[in-house]
What we know:
Distance between the termini of chain A: 44 Å
Oligomer: homodimer
Structural class of chain A: mainly alpha
Helix content of chain A: 55-70%
CATH topology of the largest domain in chain A: Four Helix Bundle (Hemerythrin (Met), subunit A)
Strand content of chain A: under 5%
Radius of gyration of chain A: 19 Å
Strand order of the largest sheet of chain A: 1-3-2
Number of strands of chain A: 3
Largest interface: A-B, 63 and 63 residues
Low-confidence stretches of chain A: 1-10, 219-227, 234-250
Number of helices of chain A: 10
Largest sheet of chain A: 3 strands, antiparallel
CATH architecture of the largest domain in chain A: Up-down Bundle
Number of domains of chain A: 2
Amino acid sequence: MAGRASSKTSESSDKVSVICRALRRAIIEQALEPGAKLPEDALGERFGVSRTIARHALGQLAAEGLVELRRNRIAVVATPSWQEARDAFDIRIELERLVVRQLAGKLSKSQIAELNAHVDAEDRARGGTDAVSIRLATEFHILLAHMTNSPILVRYVSEVAYRCCLTLSLYSRPHSTECAINEHRAIIAALARGDEAKVMELMHHHLDSVATRALVAPAPQRGRDLLDILAPYADEVTSDRVVKLPKVARRG
Amino acid sequence: MAGRASSKTSESSDKVSVICRALRRAIIEQALEPGAKLPEDALGERFGVSRTIARHALGQLAAEGLVELRRNRIAVVATPSWQEARDAFDIRIELERLVVRQLAGKLSKSQIAELNAHVDAEDRARGGTDAVSIRLATEFHILLAHMTNSPILVRYVSEVAYRCCLTLSLYSRPHSTECAINEHRAIIAALARGDEAKVMELMHHHLDSVATRALVAPAPQRGRDLLDILAPYADEVTSDRVVKLPKVARRG
DNA sequence: GGGCCCCAAACTGCATGCAATTGGAGCGAT
DNA sequence: ATCGCTCCAATTGCATGCAGTTTGGGGCCC
């Protein structure tokens, strides 16, 4: 049951994809912290490919929001703002409610077993590092998405889950993984019972609690970019080199 | 108010992005039909860049699901299956409900005016081609997403809307755009009133009706890939060269 | 006439090379 | 010491070249 085939679009199993996967994993396991530099040369050398390939991989990851690409500058691991992190979680909640809505009562016994096995693995990993726990928890959600057999849903859930993973490494306090594991079990149970409303509520609460527990302080601004902080003030500066921000409603 | 700045991630305003935008537009306006071939050489020559750049652009569009990349084969405009189209609409409904939920009662007068102006433009374009009408309707939704000021939400709504746009060209009958325009006006009104529940319901109904109206026949299979059509039959073929499908629950 | 094979053209996968840009070290002036 | 300037190594942006793969069509045999 391992090795689910990737969708025909993107991830063509060539060298670019290999590097993408490696970097993605390094990022979500926090081996590469937000803000870490990713020079094309270094990547190419490390993975034994040319700069062209490394560059292409960075482009893909940028499209996923995991790295930031600035013209003529070294690419860096993305450093989402607190608001972006919250936005990502909001989107994730809706997407994953959709996942469990589609899955409720539709899972085979072997699929339930697979889910339980994954949570068991999460349980066993409790003694390990936070990074591994977070990765496993994320993969549980992606596993669920895979079971919808909707490539689009898989892609979006994966992406947004990775982004959330990334933000956890920025804003999270050392959080307990136990309750998350219990919530995973509860979700599996509700899915098996086919209790659509309940499982949607469970998923909603699960993600929301992870988000609110993790995204505590509105402004730790650890590695935050000065440019972000000063952006609101730039309006009053009269220079055509200042980045123009579109005027928009910032919801509460 | 035009020229909303693109997010710092992806769309770096270099040559690759230019080509991406051009192709994206060509695809959603059906100048390039699903299945159309996109050789790197031809693209490069057409846009006055090298194959490297054209290739990179194709990679980005593949990540968005607008083109399909097969190893050692010419890239083609994506040809989503009917099920994928339905999945895209389901996701879109959830995302856009989130958009209007965040926006209800939070829009400034000038933003309301901008939305109305856009719908006016849709109205004026009723006499034109279907392609333009569809593009404008799509851009209305993307305009809404922009107003949330959430780059992530903008990206996902844009992507999924483009994908839906693409599927419309595959499975849609010549549909009337009038009711869609009226529904857009109703949504604006509900947003201005700040009626959150109502606007979510309106958006849901709007998209759902577009989807069900458009995705009528489960199998028009115009330019559909034989491989997709025959996939269910491949199970009975005993050969290790047959593409293995993971066994999953296909929800009703 | 129809099926098969083989080969050339077309195309992709990837590496390398060159020009342009950046950012930071070094250094002198304040 | 701090600021500002200059210059060079590091790095990106992009084009080109080469090798391997796919395509499709002509010729050959049945």
